[in-house]
Write a structure and sequence with these properties.
about 10% strand, 17 helices, 8-stranded parallel sheet, binds zinc ion
Length: about 375
């Protein structure tokens, strides 16, 4: 397996500090919230978002590693970090000068992950934050190729992650995330290595990394093998690449979800096909903002997705940003949270229970806030 600098787990999921100030800066969108949230400057909006049960469907577990834990693991494992202190690391992670800059930060962060305990602490820390945010389900990507290239045994990765999942109230599962830069042969090799851990540790196969020039169809055989193994299938497509990358992910890889997928909008036939099939996309507009994808057009594109009929879902601060950009009201936000469960790989009955919990939380929020009772549509927001 190549030992070159690890590719990014996802161009749209850089390590991000989740402290309030940072997220606030990211969501400092000029748009005022919907009139239902206007009274207290958006605090009621944030309360609703926090209280709504949610499913997290687009998260790269490596991207959740926070600076303090990174320094702790570096000290424990004797790994030298390229930062003098936590402040310098935070500064490096606050903005990226370009892809290489992002790669340098990603590599520095992941270099500290070496043992089962490291993977346990990584996932445990994220899942604690997720539980506090009322995330009930998290389906998380794992860059197994990158970790194995550093000599980490797959058994240590799987055992650490599973131990964290078992200790968490969040219904956590993991997805093998193949990096396109490494090519189909390496992908097949990783999938074969992971076979003993399917389905105990991994429920799906995802495809990420630099998109342009790496057509999804190159991975047709790998995805066919994953299907035969009973894995769910998804791919990052339509992030940097155009609509034909999304078409290929659907037709050649038979994906059940498209990550990002925003450039599907460029082909009306594709939009119609995805809406008819209720094939969901997972948007990450805040990450797009940080990496300056669709510069100047992102707000319009997100509004277009909401109007397109394509099923969609968001996580973290994305809810607030999208709510402000699109002027979403309380019911529409609850519909988005419900849609996140619909797009998950949970069994049908569990989905139903979580969707019911969304509307229960919505009713509770409305009663607490003294919001007028209006019959909500309670369907998907399109
Ligand atoms: Zn991603």
């Amino acid at each position: 397996m190549p030992h070159a600098a690890s590719p990014p787990p996802c161009m749209a999921a850089p390590p991000i500090e989740r402290d309030a100030a940072d997220v606030s800066a990211l969501v400092s969108c000029p748009a005022p919230p919907h009139p239902a949230f206007a009274a207290d400057g958006g605090a009621a909006l944030r309360r609703l978002i926090r209280q709504l049960p949610k499913a997290e469907l687009h998260l790269h577990i490596e991207g959740t590693l926070e600076v303090d834990l990174m320094f702790k693991l570096a000290a424990r494992n004797g790994v030298a970090l390229p930062y003098a202190d936590a402040a310098a690391a935070r500064a490096a992670r606050a903005s990226y000068a370009g892809l290489q800059d992002f790669l340098d930060v990603y590599n520095a962060c992941t270099a500290v992950l070496l043992t089962e305990d490291d993977f346990f602490e990584l996932a445990d820390a994220y899942l604690a934050r997720a539980a506090a945010d009322n995330v009930l389900t998290a389906e998380m990507f794992v860059d197994v190729q990158g970790h194995m290239a550093r000599g980490v045994p797959l058994d240590a990765i799987a055992s650490g992650l599973l131990r964290a999942a078992a200790a968490s109230p969040v219904d956590a599962s993991f997805i093998l995330c193949i990096q396109r830069e490494l090519g189909p042969a390496a992908a097949s090799e990783a999938l074969k290595a992971a076979r003993p851990y399917v389905p105990s540790a991994f429920i799906g196969l995802g495809l990420a990394g630099a998109e342009v020039g790496n057509m999804p169809s190159e991975y047709e055989a790998v995805f066919a093998e994953a299907e035969e193994m009973g894995l769910h299938k998804m791919a990052h497509a339509g992030e940097e690449g155009g609509a034909r990358y999304v078409w290929e992910a659907i037709r050649a890889l038979r994906v059940e979800r498209v990550d990002h997928g925003i450039r599907a909008l460029e082909d009306p036939q594709l939009v119609a096909a995805m809406a008819a099939a209720r094939l969901p996309i997972t948007l990450c507009p805040l990450s797009n903002l940080r990496l300056q994808v669709y510069a100047g057009e992102l707000e319009a594109r997100v509004r277009e997705v909401l109007a397109s009929g394509i099923a969609h879902c968001y996580v973290d601060g994305n809810y607030e940003w999208v709510a402000r950009v699109a002027g979403l009201g309380p019911e529409q936000l609850a519909q988005l949270a419900a849609a996140s469960f619909e797009a998950s790989f949970l069994p049908k009955e569990r989905k139903k229970a979580h969707v019911a919990a969304v509307w229960g939380a919505f009713d509770a929020w409305r009663a607490e806030e003294g919001q007028p009772h209006r019959p909500a549509a309670r369907g998907h927001p399109h």
